[in-house]
Amino acid sequence: MTGRPAPANPTAAEAAARIHGHWIDGSWQRPGGGHYPVVDPATERVVGHAPQATEGDVDAAVRAARDAWPAWSRTAPERRAAVLARAAELLAERAAGLVPLVQAETGATIRVAATMQVPTAAERFRRYARGATEPDTVPLAPVPVKASPLAPGGLIGAAAVRRPVGVVACVTSYNFPLVNLAGKAAPALAMGNTVVAKPAPQDPLSCLLLGELLKEAGLPDGVFNVVTGAGAATGEALVAHPGVDMISFTGSTSVGKAIAVTAGRTMKRTLMELGGKGAAIVMEDVPEVGLKSAIGAVGSTWSFHSGQICTAPTRVLVHRALYEKVVTSLQHYAESLTIGDPVDNSTIVGPLISAAQRDRVEAYVAGARDQGARVVTGGTRPAVTPGYYVAPTLITDASLEMTVAQEEIFGPVVVAIPFDTEDEAVAVANGTPYGLYDYVFSRDAGRAWALAARLRSGNVGINTVQRHPETPFGGFKDSGVGRDGGSFGLHAYSELQSVVWPS
Predict the structure, then answer these.
(1) What is the mean predicted confidence (pLDDT) over 63-86?
(2) Rounded distance, CA 142 to CA 489, Å?
């Protein structure tokens, strides 16, 4: 079955109503498993209904991508660039309709949805439109080789060439659904791969609409497909499908490990951005202005998407000379934040994605209390109904072994831990299974640079939580495998082929 023509700027309700099924082979396809409701985390009302995939639906999507791959992989880079650039333009043009839909299904504040959800997705397509024409060949100097039983001697030339991997399964997270998918699909498509996307079950509606938009941008049928499902079965079927060559996953470490096991059976390539337990290290030499910056940086765990971000500095490690001052400042910061309806421009802290996630975060806080930690502020459910809200929470007196100091919570919870020496700070920062994003705040940037080298973390921010869009992004240890971002994203979705010839 096919979709109706899309209005230029549909409302959130109109956009959700257009979703009839999965996006497979360039059209809406009726789902084999019916539909399931997608709920607004702030109102607890149904935003729309997403299709429930069966194994047959997943198989159809993979087969469509497989069939489309030979032609797309041979498409001129300039043509691929034009399609991705047009997709960026369409995302920007449709922002007025997409922003309310993304906001409603994610529960993000309107400020975050309007500035960092849809616009960032458009920018990622724009970036990889440029990336499609980046050089893919590294020439190697000719080498004189002696004759051997293998072949005659001579001057041998060679080049290393990046080739597309094939069919890429993009399994994405719920915190930034459209942005996360754009960050995977755009470089994958730019390199000549085809894609089957499986968005998070909580908020897949905007991701489904991306298929329609890419077709309008000129993408051939079958090159980009989307299947959704309420449970784990859809993702499991996609990951295990023999027609998939690579899996790009963003989500929890536990799911990532399960994917790695499945992928290993058929040697699928993997790119996995998993959990984080970021540490912000505040050194004793930080000046007053730097201390204010550090407070704001740690406070972003509460003020930015309610802590539902893997790079959040959820642990603040503070030199004992500044510890009480930082704890007091963080308490005041947390208690100054407005909790409420995310479509109200004055709201800073919106809801969590679901009742289950709210309950999970509350269980972590209760567990910290039971283990002897002190909840300085927050820790109780705010008087905001309906919606899945958790108040900004600051925990102290937590030992390093406590669950709240070790595991990713993915909510507005910060744990403050004092240290006496730089060696101790490094040991605490490195003392979890994670290693995604850490931060160092110091007057001496050279000292911070040297300290960064001791941190087992894929990313380190010095005196900032700002990002650089061209850096390789990924984690050490349980925080993932591989890197994307900038040109590194193009590398992630390609294989190196060596081509050798006699000169």
Answers:
(1) 98
(2) 29
Report which DSSP code applies to 220. Answer: P
Structural contact between residues 207 and 232, judged by C-beta atoms closer than 8 angstroms: no
Number of other CB atoms surrounding residue 14 within 10 Å: 13
Structure tokens at 209: 């609409």
Domain ranges for the chain? 12-134+161-274+480-502, 279-471
Q: Is 273 a catalytic residue?
A: yes
Do domains 12-134+161-274+480-502 and 279-471 share one topology? The answer is no
Cα–chain-centroid distance for residue 222?
A: 24
Distances in Å between the alpha carbon of 362 and those of 38, 335, 358, 396?
23, 18, 6, 16
Three-state DSSP class for 134? Answer: coil
- Each residue of 109-140: b (16+ CB within 10 Å) or e? bbbbbbebbbbbbbbbbbbbbebbeeebeeee
Residue with tokens 């990046």: 162
Contact assessment for residue 352 and residue 364, using Cβ atoms and an 8 Å cutoff:
no
Cross-strand pairs, 29: 22
Report CA Rg, the chain: 24
- Residue 489's contacts (CB-CB under 8 Å, 6 or more residues apart) are 128, 131, 183, 186, 187
CATH number of 12-134+161-274+480-502: 3.40.605.10
pLDDT digits (tens, 9 = 90+) for 159-193: 999 999 999 999 999 999 999 999 999 999 999 99
Those residues with Cβ within 8 angstroms of residue 13's Cβ, 6 or more apart along the chain or in another chain: 48
The CA distance from 281 to 81, in Å, is 41
Of 310, 422, 424, 470, which one is the catalytic site residue?
A: 310
- d(CA 470, CA 473) in angstroms, rounded, equals 9
**Rounded-to-10 torsion of CA 431, 472, 270, 31:** 110
207 closest CA partner among 239, 236, 231, 185 = 185
Tell me the pLDDT band of 12, cut-offs 50, 70 and 90: low
Is 207 annotated as catalytic?
no
pLDDT score for 6: 41
pLDDT in tens, 77-115: 999 999 999 999 999 999 999 999 999 999 999 999 999
CB atoms within 10 A of CB 407: 17
CATH of domain 279-471: 3.40.309.10
Catalytic residue among 105, 236, 273, 362: 273
Bridge partners, residue 317, by sequence: 281, 417
Between the CA of residue 368 and those of 109, 265, 343, 365, 403, what are the distances in Å?
28, 39, 32, 5, 7
